[in-house]
Each structure stands twice: as structure tokens, then as C-alpha cells.
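Dear colleagues,

I hope this message finds you well. In preparation for our joint manuscript, I am sending the MFS transporter (Streptomyces hawaiiensis) sequence together with its predicted structure, so that both groups work from identical material. I would be grateful if you could confirm receipt.
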Amino acid sequence: MSGTTTAAAALRRRAAGAGANRWVVLVVLCASLLLVAVDATVLHVAVPAVTEDLKPGGIELLWIVDVYPLVCASLLILFGTLGDRVGRRRVLLLGYTLFGVASGLAALADSAQVLIVARALLGVGGAMIMPATLSILRQVFPDRRERALAIGIWSAVAAVGAAVGPLLGGFLLEHFWWGSVFLVNIPLMLVSLPVGRLLLPESKGDGKGPWDVVGALMAAAGLFGVVLGVKRLGGGESVGSLLTVLPLVVGAALLVGFVRRQRRRTYPLVDLRMFARPAFSTSVGCIVLAMLALVGLELIAAQYLQLVLGLSPLETGLRLLPLTFAAMAAGLAGARMLRRFGPRRMVCAGFCLTAFAVVLLTGLGRTDDCALMLSGFVLLGFGLETTLFGAYESMLSEAPQDQAGGAAAIGETSYQLGAGIGIALLGTVMNAAYAPGLSGVPGVSAAASSSAGHSLGEAYEVAARLGGSAGAALRHAARDAFVHGLHVTLLVSAGLLLLGAVMALRLPRVMQCESGPVELPAPRDAAESRVSV
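The corresponding C-alpha cells are as follows:
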């Protein structure tokens, strides 16, 4: 780096970090991420306990698990761009408050409906927190080399949260009721709120033009409708059902209208010209595909460990630790790998390594194979984090600083949208492979087989009611069918990951560290600025 470039970078760092050391800011932002990451995974090991206590139906259980990413994905663009307008720190602190209140409501929920509402409010709080943390990080680390290191630390903390969530949830379930898994958010919020108010710098965009309230609501409603429709399909609803088709059609229409509205406005809510940059659009696509392929696997893995292998919630959390520790290692090494290999090779290799790990895990069966599970989880965690790190860093570096909130919101929307659709898609694949294995079990009626086909947990309940040889036969068949469904789901995920590896070939070969501001290309025609939502 030349002396002029170094001096310019130093000036940008001083301007961005005025009033607060940028590394102290990173610590506070990582605490914010930890708050959301713990909540995203802590429920996974508690699903069997929630099912036993609240007795939710199949659709209600899907809502309990899926409403958080659904609501969060719907509102990320709204709150990300609002932060650019009114202040990112302000939105972040409001998110802390709402997250804490919603956690208390979830902990005290006495019905599935109340828990669904609480999880939805947690989604609103998460939508306020996530884009704010990334956009503030983009603001205080304008130098790309430092920003890559900061993103690596930030993503390693996300892995810590993913590790702490199941482990902490398992520990709490060993000693307390399932609602205690939500109470862990409250102390984190009580610490983060005053510390964030004291240490975080306020930052905004350029403030040109009015904030597009109508556009924000169109984006939120459109994303909600699309993900809701896909979620209902994942819950086994008919493709021709009005309650499935209507949200999909209305949501898609609203998103098309949102895109057209942004193209016409002088000061758009989201500058869609960012998608004309191959690195930005490809990074977004890679994030969606990575989450689409993998997010449902963690939930299925928790059920496999508890219901097939018979492990306790605490033992389940311990078994998932190698995955998240490997992800931490990848996050900390990410900046160095990005500089050495470049975004294209890094993301492509991450996809391929993750696909290999997923195929390796198809060797899991009805008996416990610790060595195979350890190897698969370590490769899975390292490969996934390598992929997401490279994609997030490339996406943020392609966005101009005054659009940091909108760019972060797009990245987080991609993450949450991929997660929501992934749970529905992989849940559909799992159910399609699992249910046929329960037909024709000796001594079990068609009605009992149909009920057992909803989930492995329900199959065990039906088997307990039947008792005797029929109950034992149903339990054995359900376990075998679940393992078969797990293998099919893993193979589908591997195919999606390989598709992501091909997509990653459009990323830049080398990590470019420009000293000047990022300029967006002016589209020559409508086709050049087309965006896929």
C-alpha cells in the first residue's frame, strides 16, 4: 500500500471512529450478535420439551420454530434503512429493549399461541439489531483489511452463540422448565443496553430525500407473504390451498411492485444498482443457498440425537459443540484466507467442503457413531463459516458507506429468508421421505400410522398408547423411517451446496482493497439493473 493510500486509510479510520475506539465498538457489536445468536439456537434442544408441555399441533410447532426467522426476514429492510435515516445506534438500542421484553413473555408462555406471539416479537427485535450491528461495523471499519478481520471476529462470536445456545439450553432443561431458555436473553440485554448507549457511536446515511415508508411496508408485507406461503407448503399444506397460494401471489406481487417503485424514485429506499455489481448479487445468492441447504439440518440433527440416539438435551448440546468450534476457527482465520485465496476460491471451497461433510454424515444410522459425527460436524462448521464469511465480506465491501444499513439489511434478509425457506423445504423433503415408511406396520391401524407420520415425536406417543408388540413395531419402523429421511435430506442439501459452489465462480478472484469510496455503476438499461428478489 502506498504512503498516500495509507494516509487516506488512516484519515478514514479516525473519522469513522471519532469518539470511540473502533475495537471497543466491535466488542459491543459482538455482544449484540451474541444476544441474537443464542436465541436463534437455544430453542432447538427445547423443541421436544415444548411439544410435551404445550401440545402444539404440527402447524403450530412449525410456527413456533419458524415465526422468528419469518418476521425477522420481513422487517430487516424496513429497520435497516430506518437506521440509515434516524440513526443506527438508536434502532439498535430499541431492538435490545424489545428483545428483552419479548424474551420474558416467551419464558412465561402458557400456550402455543402465546409462545408464537412472543417469538414473533423476538423476530421484530432481531430485525432491529442485526442490520444495525453490521452497518455500524461497516461505518467504523472503512479499511477493507481491518474490516475483514473485524467481520472474522464478529462471525466467530456468532459461532460462539450457536455453540452456547444448545449447550446452555441443554443445561437449563436438565434443571429447570423449558421457558428458562428464553430468560438468558434478559441479563444480556440489561448489560448491552447501557453499555451500548455509552460506547457506541451514532451514525446515519446521507439523509437525502424522504424515507420511503410505503416502500418499506411493501417490502415487509411482500417478504412475509412469500415466506408464509413457502412455510405452509413445508407444513404439508396442499399446493392448491387458498391459504397457501394467496400469500405467495400477493407477496410476489408486492415485491415486484417494490422493485419497480425503487427504480422510479430519485432517492430509493434500497439502491438496486448494487445488484448490478456481480460481487454483490453473487454474495447475496451464496448466502441464501448456504442457509437454504443447511438451516433445517440443525433442527433435524437435534431431533436425531435426542429421539433416535436417546441423548439428553445437555448431551445433545455437547455433541453440537465441535461444529460451532470449527466455525469459530474459520471465522478467526477468515481474513487471512480471504487475502491469500481471494473471495472466489474461498467461497467455492467452503461450499465444496460443506457438501462433502453433509455427504459424509449420511453414514449415520440407528447406532451412535461418535467418530463419524465428530468428523462430519467439524468439516460442516468450518466449511459453512468459510462460505458465509467470504460472502458477507464481499457483499459489505461492494456497498457504499451511506447505504450500509440497506446493504446489511439485504444480507441479513438473505440469511433469514434462506433460513425460513430452508426449514420449509427440508422439512417437506424430510416428511416426504419419512411418512411412507410407517405404512403397513403389523398391528397398527391406518389412522394410527397417519398420526405417527407427522413426526417422530408423535410416532413415539402413538407407540406408547398402543403398547405391546404393535407399539414396539411402530417405534422401530418410525426410527428407521426417520434415519432414511435424514439421509435423503442430507443428499438434497449436498446438491444445493454444489449449486452454490458453481454460483461462487462469479466472485472476484482477488481481494481488492481500494482506498477511495465505492461508486455504483449507472445501469445502461432496464435489463442491466434487473434484480431478483
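For the figure legend, we might mention the following. The chain has three domains: 18-200, 213-268, 274-510. The CA atoms of residues 342 and 510 lie 4 Å apart.

With kind regards,
E.M.
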